[in-house]
Amino acid sequence: PTSNLDLTSSTTWEPAVYIINTHTDNSAGEITFKKLASDNVTSDNDYIGFINYVADNDNSGASDVATYVQCAVQATDATDGNEDGAIWWKTQKAGTLTEALRLESGNVSIAVDLDVDGTTNLDIVDIDGAVQLDSTLTIGADDQGYDVIFYGDTASSNMTWDTSEDDLVLN
Prior knowledge:
Blueprint: E1 46-56, E2 65-77, E3 84-93, E4 96-104, E5 107-110, E6 148-151, E7 158-162, E8 167-170
Antiparallel strand pairs: 1-2, 2-3, 3-4, 4-5, 6-7, 7-8
């Protein structure tokens, strides 16, 4: 069709759309969103595509609907040879569609609280705000310690655990 395509069903788990590739190599089916401007020019921050997940809320008898999750893709920089793109997800939070996650130009931004269950291994961590630990802080392991330095507000004022000397040094 050249306009909207609506699929409607009152049957459980329908309508469904399947894209099936039966070829025996490593290729797969795909869905492509294309933005082809009539002037052949895509501008910075032009949107390329949206996926919206919309449903009724619990206000029975009314046709109140909400977009619970939205995914969008943008051409953040359309400069030939320097193209950058972004994909972001928004989710409903207390009745407002709020950006939660963004992947842009090789970076990841998380705009909401991050709750990680399990072990997280990070190579380098730079924390710009306050840190609250709700349990024991362990640095190193038994028979494998590391230097730890706590800096004071005065230049050259610190408390250092020197692991090579097994000694706490106050400067």
